[in-house]
Design brief:
Blueprint (H helix, E strand, L loop, with lengths): L2 H14 L3 H25 L9 E8 L2 E6 L3 H12 L8 E6 L8 H13 L4 E7 L1 H4 L4 H23 L5 E7 L2 H15 L4 E6 L23 E7 L16 E4 L12 H11 L16 E2 L2 E2 L10 H6 L10 E2 L7 H9 L2
The structure holds calcium ion.
């Protein structure tokens, strides 16, 4: 067992056995150690880390898809081909997912490919942004700073180099990656007319940082903007469970199949792309709950999942108290009816 797994199981076991208060006191330290070791062990496990931040784009390869750097000749050719085939009222949609502080393996690649399988094709371009070399800092605040000052502007630059004609841009970021997508969206808003959709997954807000800076582009009246934020109340405590001013907030804590898992939102979001928890990832085989108040949350809230879905978002208020997703139950009238026959 890797050291990180030992620490992780220590957290889980203790919380699971009712010592929650005791563990919560140590949690930030344990979490820091755990995430540090996950990053350290990635090198040992052979999951290579790009030395420089890179945007990868899914390119069809026979019946499957492959991810290529955004300046690869095949990506450039694909974009030219797709642009040329657009009808008058069509435009290209871009969706990119990115990770946060210290990553053991690059789950964003799998999510990008899952999105490509579900929604990729003529108008939707799917990708992921890897900045793991920059995210490997001892202090998570330094990773958030690198996200804001370096990785975010770089992602924005790479998106704009691909095209200035995007019809819609959707950026998804986990943890400190929230700052990457927020910064990148400012560049996109500055140079394109694309409506912007940001999806924050357990956004990390360092102490004394203003959460209102995430998705600040919303304050520009000339930008069409909507964002969703999925979070859990987990071992990382208040650092990753703040409802955001510039997002529709959704609390996943009650449908967490694990115990207070900071990573749940990205496994869960992947699940909403494919309709279930991925069989090769954590929580395989567990029930996926993603509805509240008649709304299907997760990937279904994106334009890539359909224009009607995206339009419905206008009714979902940003900056309000979080909507809580709970395990679905049959409606009360159906339960009452079933009781009559028992
Ligand atoms: Ca959290």
């Amino acid at each position: 067992m890797l050291p990180v797994e030992l620490i992780e199981s220590y957290c889980r076991l203790n919380v699971g056995h009712g010592n929650e208060v005791k563990v919560v006191g140590k949690a930030p330290l344990l979490w820091a150690a755990m995430v540090f070791l996950t990053g350290w062990s990635a090198g040992a496990s052979g999951d290579s880390v790009a030395p420089y931040p890179e945007l990868y784009i899914a390119v069809a390869d026979g019946n499957s898809a492959d991810l290529r750097p955004s300046d690869d000749a095949r990506v450039v050719a694909m974009l030219a081909e797709r642009s040329a085939a657009l009808s008058k009222n069509e435009g290209l949609v871009l969706v990119v997912v990115t990770h946060g502080w210290f990553e053991r393996y690059n789950w964003t690649r799998e999510m990008a490919l899952a999105m490509e399988r579900r929604a990729g094709g003529s108008t939707v371009i799917c990708g992921c942004f890897e900045w793991r070399a920059l995210a490997r800092r001892v202090n998570p605040v330094d990773a958030a700073r690198a996200a804001t000052q370096t990785a975010g502007p770089l992602l924005g630059d790479k998106i704009l180099k691909l095209s200035l004609e995007w019809d819609h841009v959707h950026l998804i970021g986990h943890s400190a990656g929230a700052w990457v997508i927020s910064e990148a969206s400012e560049a996109v808003a500055r140079y394109t007319k694309a409506p912007i959709h940001l999806t924050f997954l357990d956004a990390y807000v360092p102490p004394f940082w203003d959460q209102g800076r995430l998705g600040k582009v919303a304050e520009d009246p000339n930008v069409a903007y909507w964002a969703d934020h999925y979070f859990t109340r987990d071992l990382t405590l208040g650092a990753t469970e703040k409802p955001l001013t510039h997002a529709h907030n959704v609390d996943l804590t009650r449908v967490d199949p694990g115990i207070k898992d900071h990573r749940l939102p990205h496994y869960w979001y992947h699940g909403t792309i494919i309709g279930q928890y991925d069989e090769n990832q954590r929580y395989a085989g567990k029930e996926l709950w993603y509805r509240a108040n008649g709304v299907r949350y997760g990937f279904d809230r994106s334009l890539e999942a359909g224009l009607r879905n995206w339009r419905q978002n206008q009714k979902l208020q940003m900056g309000a108290e979080a909507i809580e997703i709970t395990p679905d139950r049959p409606p009360a009238w159906l339960e009452n009816l079933a009781n009559l026959f028992r």
